[in-house]
Amino acid sequence: MQQKQDEKVIKKMADLLRSGAQMLAETCPIHGVPLFKLKSGEIICPACGKGVLFAREGEETKVAGNVILNRLESVILTKIRLLTGLLEQESDIYKMHEYVKSLSSLIDVLSKIRSLSSK
Ligand SMILES: [Zn+2]
Question: Would you say residue 55 has pLDDT above 80?
Answer without folding.
Answer: no
